[in-house]
Amino acid sequence: MRLTLRNVVSVLAMITFSVPSFGIEITQPSGIVPWLQNEPNLIAWTFVNGDPSNFSVIINNQNMSVLNGNLVIVAIVKTSDREFNVSNVTLPESPGYRLTFADPLNSNEIFAQSAAFSILPP
């Protein structure tokens, strides 16, 4: 197969149409609204009809010396709940955390990801 503009456009179209699209958006935490250590912290989101009915909540940090890999905070949350309180966050104080909402049976299927946020002392 010769690499032509037409072939490239065809492949891009197939990729674009094969990637699922979800309307879930994580609104808290955010770059503006941090979490506090040893305090209850809110996870909030919006969704649209047709989004998955539940998901897992995973946290990670871009700095592997702060958090080495992904940590599942909640195994299954109902999408329709719109919010969830995490109590007694004991993760290290640091910027660069992100939440990921993923399929509970396949964490590689990501539904939404938060903006980077910080965990601060109380």
TrEMBL record:
Residue span(s) of domain Yeast cell wall synthesis Kre9/Knh1-like N-terminal: 36-119
Pfam families associated with the record: Kre9_KNH
InterPro entries in the cross-refs: Kre9/Knh1-like_N
UniProt KW Signal keyword: yes
Protein's UniProt keywords contain Signal: yes
Keywords carried by this UniProt record: Signal
Signal sequence residues: 1-23
Domain of life: Eukaryota
Protein name: Yeast cell wall synthesis Kre9/Knh1-like N-terminal domain-containing protein
Natural source organism: Schizopora paradoxa
Origin organism lineage: Eukaryota, Fungi, Dikarya, Basidiomycota, Agaricomycotina
